[in-house]
């Protein structure tokens, strides 16, 4: 089976969908001729023409606003925001418009659209190239929020997102674009070409939004993670020897609560991971879900390992990033109770 | 019934792409000295033509000509030359430092040095710039210590921003240099607010807003113009049109349909379009706008026509989207060469002195780099403290951050 990096897998998903469906249009800053600063749209303008893949002016509210209009017309826009950190000028268009159009017009108008954005840290990008704003989307009724951790899922989920009739926020953890970064920044990264999840079938396939994947089976503790933190969790489990079951959520809204319940009822313990800041992060929602659904099966308090509640710093990147040591400590701690 | 034609989308394309011959025909350039210089209290609607021309002082022979010739003294011009050379040498050294792994990222202003270095000459102590990442010349023209700037770039132990910010996003209040945000155009409107505050307080200080032509697309640009139009605060609204926004040519920001200077017309704000590679024109136009601000006549928008001769940043490779030779074909030339030629034409300078000055400046920059490296570089040597990460989020550290700091063990 062909192996792809996550960048190639995303590009392939766009290519497959642009070929199948003339309603799919792709645009964003530097997305057209250049092919995007992370190269996710390289070659698409040449292949499909400038009216289906083009550069947008530097206006995130414009990019998302025109996507809403295109979706309402009947197209399937896939907009790129260059970094998730730059989506804020477009936030009103996402929250007040895209998310609510179906509801407020009683289904007369809808906004089937995907907003792709690279997120997360690990590239010394400082506070404006490192943020993980997923909770700002999961909190909004009417949006779906997806975050793949590997090329195979990225392609299948992106195709599902484009085919979805509701607006989907598609977060791309940029640190795993080229390999499964596990938080060991001082070690060379394994390329996706040598990782089983680098395998991405050619052509069309989709992964339903709302289905988690078990990355590692285990009996002692359930780890809920998504994006880059899935790989950090794997490293931590390996290094501590803790028999952890690692669940890659893949989609935050809709959330695969059955998979979570099944695992926590089995293990009786739960550790939740994310790069985003802690307070009101998506981990708080996950923790509440586990408590509400599995309280009588829990043998220890639920723990969260997250980014600190500060802006993302530059020089202190590795003090900030919740790496395998911190995750490993939490795995051990939750077993002591 | 009229016949309907199928519609089609207009997507702007630059005249040439890599492999093609550079072509700047879209830019019509008047002779130096050709544009009139109105009085500073001119009503905006009487100078609409100035937003469609280009104010220029230095001609091809190196002479200063026309009504915008500021009559700057030789010493002031030499200081300008020195500031531009220093900015260029600083950029070259920091680009190299990034390639050597001493920092993560850098953004040069090569080719655009006259804009910031010339503009700063119109400001006084107490005025406030709200710069973008490409206005290092504002600091260098004030002889701000290079070591201080380098320590920020290296995120080292002496970095006044404690390692928190991405390289080049300086902050230097004492130098009238507002903390640079990585989010485009947010500060353009903040400059208007600062100027409104000066007016509200009966102060005499003025503000300067900065934005790239690509970033004028952001809503904050338009918000700034409407507030500047309504309250007429003492602010200069600078648009640096260096033709490119990463890989997007100025047409993607709307430059095909109107000039960026003309954006001001809908708001009734006086607007100038100026040769940004002409140090004397930059000084003259900045001083004109500053005088308007100081005389309580309100805002001025200035489009600086220049060219981003270097890469967007150390992460960028411009040969992927524009011809390699485009920079050499830029019709407004190089700002340093032009001012140098003028000084030579005046008999006040020579090629030998230029070579000597460049060497002196390169030594100065190298010595500064050695000193700054002694205080650490991003991955080597003394670092800002890890605890600094938790400080300054709030004035007083709240309990939850104290607990997190403890958990982090720093
Ligand atoms: C809100 C926001 N959107 C996108 C970016 C990414 N970005 C950084 S610089 C840049 C291009 C800006 O071009 P321009 O305004 O012309 O300034 P120049 O770089 O030419 O000085 C882009 C798109 C950003 N920093 N902030
Ligand atoms: Mg520009």
UniProtKB/TrEMBL annotation, chain A:
The keyword Oxidoreductase is annotated on this UniProt entry: yes
Enzyme class: oxidoreductase
CDD domains named among the record's database cross-references: TPP_PYR_E1-PDHc-beta_like
GO molecular function: branched-chain 2-oxo acid dehydrogenase activity
GO biological process, alphabetically ordered: branched-chain amino acid catabolic process; response to nutrient
Cofactor: thiamine diphosphate
EC number: 1.2.4.4
Domain of life: Bacteria
Keywords: Oxidoreductase
Residue intervals of the Transketolase-like pyrimidine-binding domain: 4-179
Xref: InterPro entries: THDP-binding (IPR029061), Transketo_C/PFOR_II (IPR009014), Transketolase-like_Pyr-bd (IPR005475), Transketolase_C (IPR033248)
Alphabetical list of Pfam families matching this protein: Transket_pyr (PF02779), Transketolase_C (PF02780)
Name of the protein this chain belongs to: 3-methyl-2-oxobutanoate dehydrogenase (2-methylpropanoyl-transferring)
Source organism of the structure: Roseicella frigidaeris
UniProtKB/TrEMBL annotation, chain B:
CDD domains associated with the record: TPP_E1_PDC_ADC_BCADC
One Pfam family this sequence matches: OxoDH_E1alpha_N
Domain Dehydrogenase E1 component, chain residue ranges per copy: 82-378
Cofactor(s) listed: thiamine diphosphate
GO MF, one annotated term: branched-chain 2-oxo acid dehydrogenase activity
InterPro entries in UniProt: Alpha-ketoacid_DH_E1_comp, DH_E1, Oxoisoval_DH_suAlpha_N_dom, THDP-binding
Domain (2-oxoisovalerate dehydrogenase E1 alpha subunit N-terminal) ranges: 6-44
Function summary: The branched-chain alpha-keto dehydrogenase complex catalyzes the overall conversion of alpha-keto acids to acyl-CoA and CO(2). It contains multiple copies of three enzymatic components: branched-chain alpha-keto acid decarboxylase (E1), lipoamide acyltransferase (E2) and lipoamide dehydrogenase (E3).
Protein name in the entry: 2-oxoisovalerate dehydrogenase subunit alpha
Organism: Roseicella frigidaeris
């Amino acid at each position: 089976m062909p192996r792809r990096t996550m960048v190639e897998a995303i590009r392939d998903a766009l290519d497959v969908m642009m070929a199948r469906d003339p309603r799919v249009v792709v645009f964003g800053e530097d997305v057209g001729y250049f092919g995007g600063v992370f190269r996710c749209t390289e070659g698409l303008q040449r292949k499909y023409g400038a009216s289906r893949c083009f550069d947008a002016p530097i206006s995130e509210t414009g990019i998302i606003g025109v996507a809403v209009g295109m979706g309402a017309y009947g197209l399937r826009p896939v907009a790129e925001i260059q970094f998730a950190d730059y989506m804020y000028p477009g936030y009103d268009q996402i929250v007040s418009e895209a998310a609510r159009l179906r509801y407020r017009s009683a289904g007369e108008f809808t906004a089937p659209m995907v907003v792709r954005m690279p997120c997360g840290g690990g590239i010394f990008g400082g506070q404006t190239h490192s943020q993980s704003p997923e909770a700002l989307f999961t909190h909004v009724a009417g949006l779906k929020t997806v975050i793949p951790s590997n090329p195979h899922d990225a392609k299948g989920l992106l195709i599902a997102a484009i085919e979805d009739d509701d607006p989907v926020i598609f977060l791309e953890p940029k640190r795993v674009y080229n390999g499964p970064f596990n938080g060991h920044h001082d070690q060379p990264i394994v390329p996706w070409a040598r990782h089983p999840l680098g395998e991405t079938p050619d052509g069309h396939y989709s992964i339903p939004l709302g289905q988690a994947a078990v990355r590692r089976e285990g009996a002692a503790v359930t780890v809920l993670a998504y994006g880059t933190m899935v790989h950090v969790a794997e490293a931590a489990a390996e290094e501590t020897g803790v028999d952890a079951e690692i669940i890659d959520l893949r989609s935050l809204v809709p959330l695969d609560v059955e998979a979570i319940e099944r695992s926590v009822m089995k293990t009786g313990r739960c550790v939740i991971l994310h790069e985003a800041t802690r307070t009101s992060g998506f981990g708080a929602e996950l923790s509440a879900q586990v408590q509400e659904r599995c309280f009588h099966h829990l043998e220890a308090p639920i723990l969260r390992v997250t980014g600190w509640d500060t802006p993302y710093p530059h020089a202190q990147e590795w003090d900030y990033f919740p790496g395998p040591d911190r995750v490993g400590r939490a795995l051990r701690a939750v077993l002591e109770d | 019934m009229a016949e309907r034609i199928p519609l089609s989308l207009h997507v702007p394309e630059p005249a040439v792409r890599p492999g093609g011959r550079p072509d700047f025909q879209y830019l019509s350039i008047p002779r130096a000295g050709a544009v009139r210089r109105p009085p500073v209290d001119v009503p905006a609607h009487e100078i609409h033509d100035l937003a469609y021309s280009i104010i220029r002082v230095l001609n091809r022979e190196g002479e200063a000509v026309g009504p915008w010739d500021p009559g700057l003294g030789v010493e002031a011009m030499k200081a300008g030359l020195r500031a531009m050379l220093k900015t260029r040498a600083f950029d070259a050294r920091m680009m190299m430092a990034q390639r050597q792994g001493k920092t993560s990222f850098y953004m040069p202003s090569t080719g655009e040095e006259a804009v910031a270095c010339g503009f700063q000459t119109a400001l006084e102590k107490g005025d406030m710039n709200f710069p973008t990442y490409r206005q290092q010349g504002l600091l260098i023209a004030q002889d701000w210590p290079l070591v201080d700037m380098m320590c920020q770039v290296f995120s080292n132990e002496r970095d006044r921003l404690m390692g928190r910010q991405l390289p080049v996003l300086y902050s230097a209040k004492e130098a009238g240099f507002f903390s640079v945000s990585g989010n485009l155009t947010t500060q353009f409107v903040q400059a208007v607010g600062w100027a409104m505050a000066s007016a509200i307080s009966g102060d005499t200080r003025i503000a300067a807003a900065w934005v790239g032509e690509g970033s004028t697309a952001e809503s904050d640009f338009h918000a700034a113009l409407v507030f500047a139009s309504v309250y007429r605060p003492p602010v200069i609204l600078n648009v640096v049109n260096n033709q490119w926004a990463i890989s997007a040519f100025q047409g993607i920001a709307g430059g095909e349909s109107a000039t960026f200077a003309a954006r001001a017309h809908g708001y009734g704000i006086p607007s100038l379009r100026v040769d940004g590679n002409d140090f004397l024109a930059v000084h003259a136009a900045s001083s004109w706008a500053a005088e308007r601000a100081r005389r309580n006549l309100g805002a001025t928008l200035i489009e600086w026509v220049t060219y981003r001769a270097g890469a967007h940043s150390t992460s960028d490779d411009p040969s992927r989207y524009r011809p390699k030779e485009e920079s050499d074909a830029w019709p407004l030339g190089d700002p340093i060469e032009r001012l140098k030629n003028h000084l030579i034409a005046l008999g006040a300078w020579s090629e030998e002195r230029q070579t000597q000055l460049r060497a002196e400046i390169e030594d100065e920059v190298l010595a500064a780099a050695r000193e700054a490296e002694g205080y650490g570089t991003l991955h080597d040597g003394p670092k800002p403290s890890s605890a600094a990460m938790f400080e300054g989020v709030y004035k007083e550290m709240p309990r939850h951050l104290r607990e997190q700091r403890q958990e982090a063990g720093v």
